[in-house]
Amino acid sequence: MLKKKHKPFLIIIFILYFVSLVYILLLKGNISISPKDFTIAHHGTFRMPGNYNLTLLETIRLYITDIKVNQHLNSYLNLIGNIILFIPFGFMFPLLTSRRRTALLTFLTATLFILLIEFIQLITVWGIFDVDDYILNILGVMIGWILQKILIRR
Question: What is the pTM of this model?
Answer without folding.
Answer: 0.82
